[in-house]
């Protein structure tokens, strides 16, 4: 098997995102296929020093996705650019002693742990000034898989980049990215990558159309979730007791939104629709504030105070195990997002047998299939009516629960692992050339092999 290097750029984030989940599942799938997996960190370990402190730095996640947003002044940017060019020369392996307990998301059986101090921040600084990718000499890597659009390429390896979506270009008002820099980075990556991966046919079409990438160089493998494993063997009676203790609400006695609170999530319209529906079941919101969330957060806090949380409750961030319990106990997950590259909350809800109401736009119909109620995310009346339809029909709730479980199996870990196996084999020259869209079926048929960038 081959050596696969995977960035830990988002994996280190303590409050997991869809991209962090993608990275963790990718690493575990690659390891499960027998590949030697290396995770590349960018912790501030310093030069030399105590190996135990280096190991501790990995667990602390000292540099992650937030580093790129902390922009220094001009002199600092020049220094970052110069250091970014050299950053790849200082990659070292961090041997795990077992004395430091890593966060669960960083534990990948059999993985090797590598570190290039401040690599990701340095590379972003270098790109902003030079417009070029930082080149690193990757340790033992046949394939470098970048799970996010990072301005980095590994010498001597096939470089694959996963572009989850083009939201900063499609919905520019919903993100804080500097759009000129973002577009330049996307164009540089698709020009130099050996292959581009994405997570839905909708995103694949966006990448081909907007960035001008040849169809044969973009493959959709979708993604998977392991959230159902957290609830395996837990009886419904126990879930009911836990949600009653946590929320003071009965099993199937509340609606749930979970995800970052940010403009594209459409939380204000969701609240308006829930109140307009007259539902007797409260809306529980789980998620930390993101960029541009001030108005939504103020609205949530104001409404939650009006009646002591009888209609609107905000729990903020929840640990993943607790979140899984809250999802499993909900009457329905409401996810009227304006735009998603994949829409992991929809899949996670279905995997736990919870009915879903979601948008009929972007990639969400691909994930939901016919197992959810689809609405126009801009139509609050339609969303209110969907809530009302679940309020008064226990049979419909049960039917959507069953259909969701079936739909979620199409995105199972085993099916994803098989698609990934086919892709890696094709890229590394052990499988025939493919078509680029991967049908989502219940079996584990491998993905078609990719076409690499011409030399």
Give a short summary of the structure:
This protein is α/β, with parallel strands linked by helices and about 450 residues long. The protein is about 40% helix and about 15% strand. The protein has 16 helices and 16 strands.
If you had to describe this structure to a student in words, what would you say it looks like?
The structure is a single chain. It is globular and about 60 Å long. The chain contains 16 helices and 16 strands. It folds into 2 domains: 3-162; 227-409, Rossmann fold. The strands form 3 sheets. Strands 3-4-2-1-6-8-9-10 form an 8-stranded mixed beta sheet. It has a 6-stranded parallel beta sheet with strand order 13-12-11-14-15-16, with helices on both faces. α9 (267-277) links the parallel β11 (255-258) and β12. With 455 residues, it is an alpha/beta fold. The longest helix is centred in the last third of the chain and has 16 residues, at 394-409. Mean pLDDT is 88; it is low at 64-70 and 441-446.
């Amino acid at each position: 098997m081959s050596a696969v290097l995977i960035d830990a750029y988002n994996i280190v984030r303590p409050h997991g995102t869809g991209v962090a989940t993608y990275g963790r599942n990718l690493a575990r799938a690659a390891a499960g296929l027998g590949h030697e997996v290396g995770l590349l960190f960018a912790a501030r370990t310093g030069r030399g020093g105590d190996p135990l402190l280096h190991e501790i730095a990995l667990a602390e996640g000292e540099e992650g996705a937030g580093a790129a947003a902390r922009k220094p002044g001009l002199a600092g940017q020049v220094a970052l650019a110069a250091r970014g060019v050299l950053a790849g020369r200082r990659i070292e392996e961090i041997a795990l002693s077992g004395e430091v307990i890593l966060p669960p998301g960083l534990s990948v059986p059999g993985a090797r742990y590598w570190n290039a101090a401040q690599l990701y921040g340095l590379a972003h600084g270098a790109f902003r000034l030079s417009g070029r990718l930082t080149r690193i000499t990757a340790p033992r890597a046949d394939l470098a898989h970048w799970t996010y659009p990072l301005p980095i390429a590994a010498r001597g390896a096939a470089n694959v980049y996963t572009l989850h979506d083009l939201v900063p270009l499609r919905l520019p008002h919903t993100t804080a990215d500097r759009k000129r820099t973002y577009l330049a980075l996307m164009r540089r990556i698709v020009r130099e990558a050996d292959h581009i991966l994405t997570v839905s046919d909708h995103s694949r079409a966006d990448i081909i159309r907007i960035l001008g990438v040849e169809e044969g160089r973009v493959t959709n493998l979708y993604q998977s979730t392991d959230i159902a494993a957290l609830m395996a063997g837990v009886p419904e009676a126990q879930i009911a007791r836990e949600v009653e203790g946590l929320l003071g609400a009965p099993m199937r006695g509340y609606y749930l939104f979970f995800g970052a609170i940010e403009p594209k999530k459409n939380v204000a319209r969701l609240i308006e629709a829930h109140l307009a529906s007259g539902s007797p079941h409260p809306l529980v919101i789980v998620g930390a504030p993101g960029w541009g969330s001030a108005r939504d957060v103020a609205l949530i806090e104001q409404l939650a105070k009006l009646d002591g949380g009888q209609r609107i409750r905000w729990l903020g961030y929840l640990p993943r195990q607790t979140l899984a319990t809250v999802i499993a106990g909900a009457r329905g997950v409401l996810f009227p997002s304006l735009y998603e590259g994949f829409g992991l909350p929809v899949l996670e809800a279905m995997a736990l047998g919870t009915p879903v109401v979601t948008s009929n736009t972007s990639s969400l119909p691909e994930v939901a299939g016919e197992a959810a109620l689809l609405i126009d995310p801009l139509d609050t009346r339609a969303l209110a009516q969907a809530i009302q339809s679940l309020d008064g029909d226990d049979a419909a709730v049960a039917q959507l629960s069953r259909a969701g479980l079936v739909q979620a199996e199409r995105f199972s870990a085993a099916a994803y692992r098989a698609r990934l196996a086919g892709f890696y084999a094709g890229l590394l020259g052990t499988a025939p050339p493919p078509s680029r869209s991967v049908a989502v079926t219940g079996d584990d048929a491998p993905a078609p092999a990719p076409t690499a960038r011409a030399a």
